Each structure stands twice: as C-alpha cells, then as structure tokens.
Amino acid sequence: MMAGHRFHPEKAEKLLDPKRKEIIAPERAIEILQIGTQDVIVDLGAGNGYFTVPMAKKTKEKVYAVDVQQEMLEFLKTHAEKEQVDNIEYILEDVSNTSLPSRLADKGLMSFVFHEVDDHDAVLAEIQRVMKPNGKFLIIEWEAVESEMGPPLHERIPSQQLLEYMKTKHHNVEFVSFHPTVYGILLTY
User: Which Gene3D superfamilies does UniProt cross-reference here (predicted)?
Assistant: First the structure.
C-alpha cells in the first residue's frame, strides 16, 4: 500500500465545508463509537478538529488531539475556542509513535489519515497500545472511487483491501458504510 501525501494546511478550511457533513457527519462517528461523558478520547491525525471538537463536546474527560502539523493544531485550537471547547490537549507528534500513556483512551478515531501513513503496522500497534481494554477505535477512509472531495484515486485504499488487512491484525473488526465514497472500520479492543 502506497502512502499518500500529507494534507496541505492551506486547504484546512475545506475540511469544515458543510458539504462534508452530507458525506460524513461527525455525529454519526460519535454514535458508532458510543461516546459518553466519561470517555477519554484520542484523535490521531486530528487535523483542524472536524471530528475532535464534536467529540470533545460529548465527554467531560480529555480529548487528545495528535497531529504532525503545527498549522493544523493551530486551526484546531481556533476552532475549539470558537466552539468554547476547553478539554482538548494538543499534541504535535507522529500518529505512529506518540508519547501518550498506554491504555489511556476509551474511544479513538483516525479520519482520512491511514492512507497517508507509511507504516500501517506501526500505527495499528500504537492504536492498540493507547486503547483501554474494551475500547473502540474507528478508522475512517475514502473509498477507492472518483469523488469531488478527497485525495486522488491512486492514494485511496479500497475498503475490501483495508478490511482484509485489518482482519489479519485484529480480532474484532466491523465494517461501517458512511457514504458511497467514505467507509469506516471499527476496532473493538
């Protein structure tokens, strides 16, 4: 699997485009993860907070927003301040090797980042390390079809391919369809 290019921060506004909600509403991810008020959450590759901020509103606990680009974390801070959300911790690190404590999170998310990662095994090992037993982690990706939004077709991972890969790495894997162009894979620990 080829790793794609990193998302450019100057396009960050696009990530909050209302049209995006028609494809995947953050509320749907929150529902699938069954986020509650006592959940500690990790968002790996948080970007500008399209999912981070709505998740942070659902819990009284901390949300750890990890991103490798300082500019994206700055967008996220601005977004969170506008929404009066103050339970987010901003972490400038690579998603495959964070300083987060082990068994930290009840719920976790990685949206539209997996296709950008070079070492999928390392990322999955990191997710497993930071998740609590019985935790739920949702990976959201672009289906390998042409669409107006998202990365070029050659950078996308077909859902069947990613699902098969996940099943070789993890025992509790569930496929989620959000939209013809977007899918999710839910891992339960």
Answer: Vaccinia Virus protein VP39
What gap in Å lies between CA 112 and CA 150, rounded to an integer?
8
DSSP-assigned beta bridge partners for residue 186: 138, 174
CATH T-level assignment (fold) for domain 31-188: Rossmann fold (3.40.50)
CA 107, CA 10: separation in Å to the nearest integer?
29
Q: Would the pTM of this model clear 0.70, i.e. be above it?
A: yes
Helix axes 120-130, 159-169, angle to 10 degrees: 60
Q: Residue 11: which residues within 8 A CB-CB, separation 6 or more? A: none
- For the chain, the domains span 31-188
Running DSSP on this structure, what letter comes out for residue 178? E
pLDDT digits (tens, 9 = 90+) for 60-82: 999 999 999 999 999 999 999 99
